[in-house]
């Protein structure tokens, strides 16, 4: 899959072309890779936020992917432009061994990150830093999406959003309610979470990103769908999620999602070899603690064959899409076809693909009911990003906002 890799070598020449591309977007999707994801999620949301904030402020963003989604001319299809940014925090940070092992096993090149990552300073800087090019980029993105009313798309995206906030805007606010107030202003066209849409709207029993992507790609191919994109076959991508959340359908009140999850976990015990040789835990949630060392299969096409009772991937024909490259204003290695099973640019692309599928299968009226609802693992209700009379935006965001949108045009 073609994508543009942005590093410290070429970012200066790519800032303007990237922002020009975003001005043409109908949606933008993001995904991040980071050095730590925190302890088991607390059920009380305020406590969970405190726990996550501590992890994010002591760990770091390693890379992020950005997919720009535009409508194809004279077509009902979509066009995707995929960009990956390698990032290098200038502050000290911690590394979670399990996170780093997982990322290394799935192709994240730490040598590239530490040699060519784009330098940034996380947290509050006290003033705008002209030398921090990633802050310039994200401030520019916020200006454009406010002007053009472009929604943001994530998958299980609370951690992604918190890492982006801490890395390129300011230190995370002390309370969740303050962060929500900031996000409502930062993303005025709203945020869609494809994991929330998959579980709470569509009712998917398995909602980890790679599974949804492969499943919907099959459906797109089988139905000669409008949604065209680069073919990635054979494909066995890993999910970005270390723990998956399975929710009940909207009309099922008999069992809680946690009760159902425990039953499925027992049923798909990965220590028991299935007749198909498929890893049960990976098939259920897209993650297995054994990783590459697991002797059972993590092949999503085999898993889909079993789940759907088909083998459609054997007849798949590659899809192609005209990729308009960014202008040649940077170093020669800015465009790449390199691909790993787990990477920020690929996960951002899969998120965008899944969302475009939902655009064709969920009515706009129903979608409007689920904007600004972020999936919460192990909690049956989403986090709602709505204005509140009881929470004001943070001081730091208010300062940034006045810089981005002078008083005459501020919210």
TrEMBL record:
GO BP, sorted A to Z: snRNA 3'-end processing
User: Which residue numbers delimit the C3H1-type domain?
Assistant: 273-301
> What are the record's GO terms for cellular component?
Cajal body
Where does the record place Basic and acidic residues bias?
A: 242-251
Which residues lie within the region annotated Disordered?
Answer: 235-273, 314-339
Q: Which InterPro entries match?
A: CAF1_poly(A)_ribonucleases, RNase_CAF1, RNaseH-like_sf, RNaseH_sf, Znf_CCCH, Znf_CCCH_sf
Family statement: Belongs to the CAF1 family.
Q: What is this protein called?
A: C3H1-type domain-containing protein
């Amino acid at each position: 899959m073609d994508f543009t890799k942005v590093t410290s070598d070429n970012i200066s020449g790519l800032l303007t072309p990237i922002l020009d591309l975003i001005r043409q977007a109908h949606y933008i999707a993001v995904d991040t890779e980071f050095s730590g994801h925190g302890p088991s999620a607390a059920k009380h949301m305020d406590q969970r936020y405190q726990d996550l904030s501590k992890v994010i402020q002591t760990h770091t963003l390693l890379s992020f992917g950005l997919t720009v989604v535009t409508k194809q001319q004279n077509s009902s299809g979509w066009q995707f432009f995929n960009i990956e940014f390698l990032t290098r925090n200038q502050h000290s940070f911690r590394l979670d061994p399990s996170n780093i092992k997982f990322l290394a096993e799935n192709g994240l090149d730490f040598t590239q990150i530490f040699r060519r990552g784009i330098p940034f300073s996380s947290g509050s800087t006290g003033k705008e830093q002209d030398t921090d090019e990633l802050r310039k980029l994200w401030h520019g993105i916020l200006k454009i999406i406010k002007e053009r009313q472009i929604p943001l798309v994530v998958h299980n995206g609370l951690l992604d959003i918190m890492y982006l906030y801490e890395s390129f805007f300011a230190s995370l606010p002390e309370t969740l309610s303050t962060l929500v107030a900031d996000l409502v202003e930062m993303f005025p066209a709203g945020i869609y979470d494809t994991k929330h849409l998959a579980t709470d709207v569509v009712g998917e029993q398995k909602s980890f990103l790679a599974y949804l992507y492969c499943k919907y790609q099959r459906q797109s191919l089988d139905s000669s769908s409008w949604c065209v994109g680069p073919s990635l076959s054979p494909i066995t991508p890993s999910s970005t999620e270390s723990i998956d959340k399975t929710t009940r359908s909207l009309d099922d009140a008999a069992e809680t999602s946690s009760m159902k999850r425990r039953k499925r976990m027992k049923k798909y015990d990965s220590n028991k070899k299935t007749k198909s040789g498929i890893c049960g835990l990976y098939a259920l949630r897209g993650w297995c603690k054994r990783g590459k060392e697991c002797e059972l299969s993590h092949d999503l096409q085999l898993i889909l064959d079993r789940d759907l009772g088909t083998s459609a991937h054997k007849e798949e024909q590659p899809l192609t899409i005209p990729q308009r490259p960014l202008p040649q204003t940077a170093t020669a290695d800015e465009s790449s076809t390199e691909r790993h099973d787990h990477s920020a640019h690929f996960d951002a692309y899969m998120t965008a693909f899944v969302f475009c599928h939902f655009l064709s299968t969920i009515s706009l009226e129903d979608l409007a009911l689920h904007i600004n609802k972020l999936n919460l693992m192990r909690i049956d209700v989403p986090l709602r990003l709505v204005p509140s009379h009881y929470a004001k935006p943070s001081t730091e965001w208010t300062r940034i906002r006045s810089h981005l949108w002078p008083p005459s045009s501020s919210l």
